[in-house]
Design a protein that fits this description.
It contains twelve helices and no strands. The chain has helices at about 1-25, 25-50, 55-80, 85-105, 110-130, 135-140, 145-165, 170-195, 205-225, 230-235, 240-250, 260-275.
Amino acid sequence: MFGFASALGWGAADFTGGLASRKTGAHRAVLYSEVIGVVILLIAALFVGEAFPSLRVILLSALAGALGTIGLLLLYHAMTLGLMSVAAPVSALLAAALPVVIGAFTEGLPKWITLLGFLFALFAVWMISQGENGVTNILAHIADLKLPLLAGIGFGLYFVVMHEATKAGATFIPMIASRSGGLILITAYMLVARISWKVDFSAWMMIALNGVLDVCGNSFFILASQTGRLDVAAVLSSLFPGVTVVFAWIFLKERLSRNQWIGIASALAAIILLTM
């Protein structure tokens, strides 16, 4: 349930982040939503009175945040090159698959019904991230997979490193360190690229909502990985593209392709199998 809640949080965050990016640009939307997230987490950490973790936890969390941000920047760059149909499914698929491979070595192979759930989930991520001709487009751009693959590795390593950082039970302070690592990286990138810091006033509500929802997604992923296996938590959390496309269908009246409906059905099957 924590993994599914993480997918809901991240899926809704991507939807609101997409709307904010349309108004003010992706890099500014990500930067300021990260800032809002840090403020929320600082308040939560003070309210809960969470003990300050070790330096190792802080460094691992900052590394996880930097890896996730690198993945995000690579994904956005791939999309600016006109590779959206390639970048989305490939990066999401690898992000889900990498923790499964690592989890098999660190935690042993899961039971067969869980493995079946992984297959349904990975298939769901692939199908949900495409239109009617998504597979054809990916095959046509097979030579352009470098950036999406690197983005997927960044996202997958975020899952793995953040799981390692929060094993001891801390939640809010590691998330603050994680977001700080990402903030440092994206701030440096914006300075080097000389990207404007100005934000359209109409975008602030979506940016704030994106920050809140992204914090929820991260929090539930950490709870999922602390409660059960890393691979199950990561795969369930990686179903977030399904939430995003459903939100676009409901609120923006975007038409879902046959492939996406098949992916959503596969995601529901995966959730059932992974929670049995």
